[in-house]
């Protein structure tokens, strides 16, 4: 076989291999968020990932008091504090985790006992927004606007319980 033909075959092989690997990478990324898309819905998932403004919210007790409240799972809960955390380091990873299937326990049923909603993240783009509330005791997350629940992996639940209050405190300084 001639040297030039062998070189062309090597180049063709490399090109074919890169096309196959690129296709696999696309397929893998496409499938790693399919269940989250079903849970949140396409628009909510896009806001979680790309909304230019993100607020962290500290929630109080269920309340009949006047003031800013949020309705989470049928409970009217007082908003104690909210802060714009849009430029906070680590937020990109926290947002991405909420739209990756690997972050959730899909085979576990959503707990039915009452949750203690203590923190939330609100993702805002103009007039559109979605709010994800976090259960302080369990691993439940709740999409406020649609009433949908998911179950986070315990390690992620712990990470959000540490980071969200820290982000609120840092923004208040």
Explain what the structure shows.
The protein has a 7-stranded antiparallel β-sheet with strand order 2-3-1-4-5-6-7. Helix content is 41%, strand content 28%. The chain folds into 2 domains: 31 residues; 140 residues, Dna Ligase, domain 1 (2-Layer Sandwich). The mean pLDDT is 87. With 173 residues, it is an alpha+beta fold. It is built from 5 helices and 7 strands, in the order αααβββαββββα. A hairpin with a 2-residue loop joins strand 4 and strand 5. Helix 2 crosses helix 3.
Q: Main traits of this protein?
A:
alpha+beta; 5 helices; 173 residues; 2 domains; Dna Ligase, domain 1; elongated; 7-stranded antiparallel sheet
Low-confidence stretches: none
Q: What number of structural domains do the residues give?
A: 2
Q: What is the CATH top level name of the largest domain?
A: Alpha Beta
Principal-axis shape:
elongated
Which structural class do the helices and strands define? Answer: alpha+beta
Percent strand equals: 25-35%
SSE order, as H and E? Answer: HHHEEEHEEEEH
The assigned CATH architecture of the largest domain is 2-Layer Sandwich
The fold-level CATH name of the largest domain is Dna Ligase, domain 1
Short structural description:
By secondary structure, the protein is of the alpha+beta class. The chain contains 5 helices and 7 strands. It is elongated and about 80 Å long.
């Amino acid at each position: 076989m001639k040297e030039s033909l062998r070189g062309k075959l090597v180049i063709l092989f490399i090109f074919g291999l890169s096309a196959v690997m690129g296709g696999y990478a696309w397929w893998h990324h496409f499938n790693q968020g399919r269940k989250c898309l079903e849970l949140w819905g396409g628009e909510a998932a896009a806001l979680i990932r790309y909304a230019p403004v993100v607020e962290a919210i500290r929630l109080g007790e269920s309340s009949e008091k006047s003031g800013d409240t949020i309705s989470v799972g049928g409970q009217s809960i007082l908003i104690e504090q909210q802060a714009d955390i849009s430029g906070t380091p680590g937020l990109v990873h926290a947002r991405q985790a909420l739209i990756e299937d690997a972050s959730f326990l899909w085979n576990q049923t959503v707990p039915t006992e009452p949750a203690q909603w203590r923190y939330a993240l609100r993702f805002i783009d103009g007039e559109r927004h979605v709010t994800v509330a976090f259960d302080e005791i369990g691993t439940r997350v709740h999409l406020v606007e649609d009433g949908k629940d998911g179950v986070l992996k315990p390690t992620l639940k712990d990470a959000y319980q540490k980071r969200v209050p820290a982000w609120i405190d840092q923004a208040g300084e």
